[in-house]
Write a structure and sequence with these properties.
homodimer; 203 residues; mainly alpha; 0% strand; globular
Chain lengths: 203, 203
């Protein structure tokens, strides 16, 4: 026992390292933004070997998700989306996104994320934008064989169009609770919005 | 001169009536919600003839817009959208919406509106939802000959899908400033999103 106030028992050394990495990551994201931050830079700030960062966290997106208290690992969610028939990628994006949002355990943190995006100070919004565009949507777009052949500028447009639709869907279904979108079964929205997302990927 | 502090000169009687109607409308919307509020009820609350409400305000949506400090008359904007070739209705919705948002005079109030929708207390969100669904989007959807023949439930779904897309576009272009959506000319988005909105109206 260390005798520190508030400690219920001895903390394993691993937890201290993990906390040190998280604290360093918070600093690194705030200073360099999401795009500029690197796992190597975070390790340097924390004074640990970069391999330790990889040991505790499943990449930069997962580390960021933990900092913003996201109750899920976006790398695992993205992997589940990109794995499968490219012709069904649009439907998988909508189904996975809505399944994650529909889950009571996830919704509060996701709502907090949207609120940060809408009302947060500009530094937070910039980090969020970079995280969503390069860490999540950009990776999904590159997973489609046609979208992967587009110019980077065109690919960024497609990612932005997909993000617009999905953010709007979350806003309408879970925040404003727009009649017609809040009340319908998840699969009705997959049926309606899936082909739209697919169109952004393959046309 | 009345001698009241802060008054620069005599206030015309019309301005007092107008203010009384606005104050009554605020109460009525807060008590009954947007859908439940009526111009007749607002007149009763203000102690004026209902014809006076019609004299000063261009309907319920315009009155609500003034209360939430919207710098434009939604009835006029909606009229400009619904007037014209139904086959181009989707493109007109996107073009008008983005033109209004792109204008520096409008954006602060519209951003405040989105923030209310995302973070406001539930009473404010309910009013906003009813205003948008029945006062704005619902009217546009009913203007399309095909959409006008759908069941009310199906029409509500279409209105919700259109609102999702447009709110997401505003969020991505003006709030989060998603690369690819924030940086492109307005007409590129009309070209991309217009057919999607048209699809919600006619399929």
């Amino acid at each position: 026992m260390t005798g520190e106030v508030g400690r219920r028992g001895p903390r394993p050394a691993g937890e201290d390292t993990r906390s040190a990495i998280l604290a360093a990551a918070r600093e690194e994201f705030a200073t360099s933004g999401y795009a500029g931050a690197s796992l190597r830079g975070i390790a340097r700030r924390a004074g640990v070997d970069p391999r330790l960062v990889h040991h505790y966290f499943d990449g930069k997106a997962a580390l960021f998700a933990e900092i913003i208290d996201l109750p899920l690992n976006p790398a695992a969610v993205v992997a589940g989306i990109v794995d499968g028939d490219p012709d069904e990628l649009g439907a998988r994006i909508v189904r996975t996104f809505l399944t994650v949002w529909d889950h009571d355990d996830n919704r509060p943190a996701l709502l907090a994320l949207i609120r940060t995006g809408v009302t947060g100070e500009s530094n937070g919004v910039a980090q969020l934008r970079e995280y969503l565009s390069s860490g999540v949507v950009g990776r999904i777009v590159r997973a489609h064989p046609h979208a992967a052949t587009l110019s980077p500028k065109e690919r960024t447009l497609r990612a932005g169009l997909i993000a617009s639709q999905m953010m709007g869907l979350a806003l309408a279904r879970y925040v404003i609770e727009f009649p017609g979108v809040a009340g319908v079964p998840l699969e009705s929205l997959v049926e309606r919005i899936g082909p739209i997302i697919q169109g952004h990927l393959e046309n």
